[in-house]
Amino acid sequence: MNLSRQLRLLGLAVLALVATGAVSASGAQAGLFTAGAFPATITGSIVAPHELGTDLGTMECEPTLDGELAAAVEELTLTPIYGNTCHLGMKEVDVNNNGCDFVVHATATAGENAVEGKLDIVCPENNAMDFQVTSNPVCHLTVPAQANLGTLTYTNHPMAKDVDLDFNIVELVYRLDNNCPFAGNHANGIYRGVSTLKADHGGAETSFGVD
Predict the structure, then answer these.
(1) What is the number of helices (H) and of strands (E) in the chain?
(2) What would the pLDDT profile of 135-157 be if each residue is shown by its tens digit?
(3) Parallel, antiparallel, or unpaired: how do β-strands 91-96 and 101-111 relate?
(4) How far is CA 64 from the centre of its chain?
(5) Left, alpha or beta for 149 (phi > 0: left; psi -120 to 50: alpha)?
(6) How many percent of the chain have pLDDT more than 70?
(7) Which helix (H) or strand (E) holds 188?
(8) Rounded to two decimals, what is the model's pTM?
(9) How big is the CA angle at 152 (ends 118 and 187), to the nearest 5 degrees?
(10) β partners of residue 168
């Protein structure tokens, strides 16, 4: 076999390997957030209370999640609405989002009807989510903007036409102000909880899924 033919065959083999790698990478990609009809309003209600674990202890909350879906998208913005549902032990906690949202992503298929994902917390410049723990003076636990937090798990329920969103976030960054014990910046926060996401189109329920 002459050198020219050897080089040509080697080039074809390299191209085949590159193509195989591209297909594999493509296959690892999860799909889109979709609804049966657009535009759709997305609402999340808790299945299990959301827990925020910090050096102060474990805070329990029962937030709703609100979002809008104009078309099938690769990321979905959800606004957590905590209201007066949060407690840290016997202490009430008031929450001010300060314009911060959850942006959720789907990254990889995890099994039948299951997809894994990541979470971004997105805030206006110089703002952070403020969990105001009852004390005199008030202790402020703030959670700033941060990205690529994991792990999220989406479980599709085709018959029910909804999706369970399971938060299992570790290494969450937060700050405790000078009125709190353990004041300062921390990166050991944990956020866990499960919410069911449903879609509504024009006042009627429609299907929602992560494909």
Answers:
(1) 1, 16
(2) 999 999 999 999 999 999 999 99
(3) unpaired
(4) 14
(5) beta
(6) 86
(7) strand 184-201
(8) 0.86
(9) 70
(10) 192
